[in-house]
Specification:
This protein is an alpha/beta fold. The protein folds into 2 domains: about 180 residues, HUPs (Rossmann fold); about 90 residues, 2-Layer Sandwich (Pantoate--beta-alanine Ligase, Chain: A,domain 2). The protein is built from 10 helices and 9 strands. Bound molecules: adenosine monophosphate.
Length: about 300
């Protein structure tokens, strides 16, 4: 595995590989790797000649009161894991290299064709869910992913469903900017009790870790209810929050939304996504499940 920290060198290397007709699979991460990340890497390994992984804790996607400084950095261990999976390139730039003082780009979302008032209601990609509680976060994510895709020049790029809103926004950006890349979104990898794997899980104390399982349990409970015929979305939302509340320290949001527009639903539909963000202790955890059902009770 070759480790590269210079954006220019990484870009030149990827260009050479493309010129030699190699297919490139690229997995962007912030490191502190776990099996969720490794599932993306394994898939990239199966589907491409060359696999590149980036590890970059992106300062632009953290709010001023968030955990940028504290975010786990375990580069030595990460390198070993990636070598074991036969990754070809690790791109590990410094913040200065990605954001020199002259850096000025901002990528946002907003349809020029739809009036703001209607957009918030029907197409709230950025305003709803995490977007509401982490101002600037997704702009930071989109900017870094755009930059990384321009550098990696990959054929396929791999993301996790764990960050559902992020995946939807990136897909929108890739399509809107005509990036020549296939984006794959893979299912959330979970611990054996259901907790979604996350680099932030290592912040949890023993007691918090035990309580954190309430997120996935509640989401699975809700999906079970819909599958067995419950159609009252507002009741389901209330009841789920009632179940979640005693286990967590704060529910930031718990919502059932349209899978594409992310608009909050008041009535059930055959395809929905249930998403939540909760604080357990001081740690903010997110999780989601998708639901697909037939029209009739099944
Ligand atoms: P991060 O390092 O947290 O920025 O995540 C890098 C990529 O790994 C993103 O596409 C995430 O959605 C994905 N990811 C994180 N956790 C999981 C998980 N538990 N299962 C699957 N993918 C994940």
């Amino acid at each position: 595995m070759r480790k590269i920290s210079s954006p220019k060198v990484f870009q030149a290397e990827m260009r050479k590989l493309r010129e030699r007709a190699k297919t490139i699979g690229f997995v962007p991460t912030m490191g502190a790797l776990h099996d969720g990340h490794l599932a993306l890497v394994r898939r990239a390994r199966r589907e491409n000649d060359i696999v590149a992984v980036s590890i970059f804790v992106n300062p632009a996607q953290f709010g001023p009161k968030e955990d940028f400084k504290r975010y786990p950095r375990t580069i030595g261990r990460d390198e070993k894991l990636l070598k074991n999976l036969k990754v070809d390139y690790l791109f590990h730039p410094t913040p200065k290299a990605m954001y020199p003082d002259s850096y000025a780009l901002k990528i946002s979302m907003g349809s020029p064709w739809v009036k703001d008032r209607l957009r918030k209601k029907f197409f709230p990609l950025l305003e709803n869910l995490c977007g509401k509680y982490r101002p600037g976060h997704f702009e930071g994510v989109m900017a870094i992913v755009a930059k990384l895709l321009v550098l990696a020049q990959c054929h396929r790029t791999y993301f996790g469903q764990k960050d559902y809103q992020q995946a939807i926004l990136i897909r929108r950006m890739i399509e809107d900017l005509h990036f020549d890349v296939i984006m794959k979104v893979l299912p959330t990898v979970r611990e054996s009790d259901g907790l979604a794997m996350s680099s932030r899980n290592r912040y949890l104390s023993g007691d918090e870790r035990r309580r954190a399982v309430a997120l996935s349990r509640t989401l699975f409970w809700l999906r079970g209810q819909v599958r067995s015929g419950t159609r009252n979305i507002l009741w389901l939302k209330r009841e789920a929050a009632r179940r979640l509340k005693p286990a967590v320290d704060k529910i930031q949001y718990f919502d059932i939304v349209d899978p594409q527009s992310l608009a909050s639903l008041r009535r059930w539909q055959t395809e929905m996504v249930v998403l939540t963000a909760c604080f357990v202790g001081k740690t903010r955890l997110i999780d989601n499940v998708t639901i697909k059902v037939k029209n009739q009770k099944s």
